[in-house]
Design a protein that fits this description.
Oligomer: single chain
Radius of gyration: 24 Å
CATH class of the largest domain: Alpha Beta
Strand content: 25-35%
Structural class: alpha+beta
Largest sheet: 10 strands, mixed
Length: 459
């Protein structure tokens, strides 16, 4: 490890012992009391009080061990993915249901709780929409009492949606997201996670890092400038006094739109790569260059800048929707809460347009080659082949925290061509950001960090 990395707080981890479900049970038990669980005032009153406390550690070990074994199985050649709630059916109001609540579906006779039953149920318990209900019946042990239908709104924040659902009650909820990948949550709050044999108490959300907004800081300032110009024109032309936007709103809206773009590529299920380059390199990447050969280039013009245009229009519409005609009153300051709660039809239409652009980019990413965009979200082309003449990268750093201060060195030979190409590009182009989505849905952000290439696996 270089002296520079040590001075910046890097820690290289190698040869760590693998953790297993028993370790995860102890990890969660030690941290359970510190987690708050549900705290959203929109949640029903019955969900705000503690319900069905965490079972004793031997029971939790049994639950997690069974979930771990189920995660290694396949059902009709599909991975076994599911969510599981440890709580009695009485916890869930029978009148509840999506989009704001949970709809309990209780079996007349409880089912056996084992990995094979979880495998058989997995097609019926669509991961984003349903939850397996499990309770501990004393002498009878663990039993599957039924299902809970939640709907997918809980995923909105992760996928770039504006409106999210109220959190689950503060009981143990297990997420099985892939082979050997298990999360334990207290309601909606993550308490412990086991992935690749490593324990952690946080799901990696790169969008919450400090470096991600810094990468797009200049372009975000441009968005605010474009909005300010539109605001001034509206006042000069029509006398409209648009509301003032919270300076942080541009970052949060841009982040949601970026999430929407990434999650749409992810949901296509075919994988793909999207490369973001600095806007000052637009002309370079629009023609022949030493980095990426674009098979399909997009001509310059407004259509290829539509994604950014829509973000500005959302900001404009939100400010306009809260305008005031009373010159004696200062313009209202509008922030993230107003954006989440607005029912303005114009914003809904613009968000639908953003989703269509995200679908377009996702479709382009499924072709053979990378999509290339600027950090202004300008679409330069697709079918990009990263040059094989770029310097090879023998090892990369896997970030173990969202800022990349703690890393683990890995050889690049353990991944495929798509990832190795992104590593080469980011080594040669320090101001680029590559988003690599695998067919299994794993999202990896890659960039030059310190004196090497670092990647972040998005949780």
């Amino acid at each position: 490890m270089s002296e520079e990395m040590v001075s910046r707080g890097y820690e290289q981890r190698t040869d760590a012992e693998h953790a297993y479900p028993r370790d995860l049970a102890a990890f969660v038990t030690a941290r359970w009391a510190e987690a708050s669980g549900a705290s959203d005032p929109r949640a029903p009153v019955s969900h705000r009080a503690p319900v069905d406390p965490l079972p004793r550690i031997a029971v939790l070990e049994k639950v997690l061990s069974t979930c771990f074994q189920a995660s290694l199985l396949r059902e009709e050649d599909q991975p076994v993915l599911f969510r599981l709630a440890l709580g009695s059916p009485e916890v869930f109001p029978p009148e509840g249901g999506p989009p704001d609540g949970l709809q309990p579906l209780e079996f007349p006779e409880p089912r056996t709780f084992d990995e094979q039953e979880l495998r058989r149920l997995s097609p019926a318990t669509d991961y984003p929409r349903s939850i397996v209900g499990v309770r501990h019946d004393g002498e009878e042990g663990l039993r599957i009492w039924g299902l809970l239908h939640s709907g997918p709104r809980w995923l909105r924040d992760r996928q770039g949606g504006r409106v999210t659902s109220a959190p689950l009650p503060p009981l143990a909820v297990v997420h099985v997201t892939g082979p050997g990948r298990i999360e334990v949550r207290k309601g909606s709050e993550i308490v412990g996670k086991l992935e690749n044999g490593v324990l952690s108490d946080a799901s990696m959300d790169v969008f919450e890092s400090g470096w991600m907004p810094a990468v797009f800081a200049a372009e975000r300032a441009e968005l605010m400038n474009l909005h300010s110009q539109a605001r001034e024109r509206a006042y000069e032309r029509d006398g409209e006094r648009w509301a003032s936007l919270d300076p942080d709103l541009a970052r949060r809206i841009s982040r949601q739109m970026f999430k929407r773009l990434v999650s749409t590529v992810q949901n296509f299920g075919r994988g793909g790569t999207v490369i973001f380059v600095p806007p000052e390199r637009t002309e370079e990447f629009s023609t022949s260059n030493r980095y990426v050969a674009l098979k399909y280039r997009i001509s310059d013009g407004k259509p290829r800048r539509r994604f950014r245009t829509l973000i500005v229009e959302i900001m404009n519409r939100l400010a306009q929707a809260h305008c005031t005609s009373d010159a004696s009153q200062p313009p209202r300051k509008i922030g993230w809460r107003e954006y989440q709660e607005t029912n303005d039809e114009g914003i809904a239409t613009l968000e639908e347009a953003v989703l269509e652009v995200a679908h377009l980019v996702a479709a382009l990413a499924t072709t053979d080659g990378a999509v290339v965009m600027t950090k202004r979200y300008e679409l330069l082309g697709f079918g990009g082949e990263i040059s094989g003449k770029l310097s090879s990268v023998e090892t990369v750093h896997r970030a173990l925290d969202i800022e990349g201060n703690v890393v683990q060195e890995e050889p690049t030979e353990i991944v495929g061509t798509r990832h190795r190409s992104a590593y080469r590009l980011c080594k040669e182009l320090p101001d680029a950001l590559a988003v690599v989505v695998s067919k299994d849905g794993n999202v990896r952000f890659v960039r030059r960090h310190g004196d090497g290439v670092t990647y972040w696996d998005q949780g």
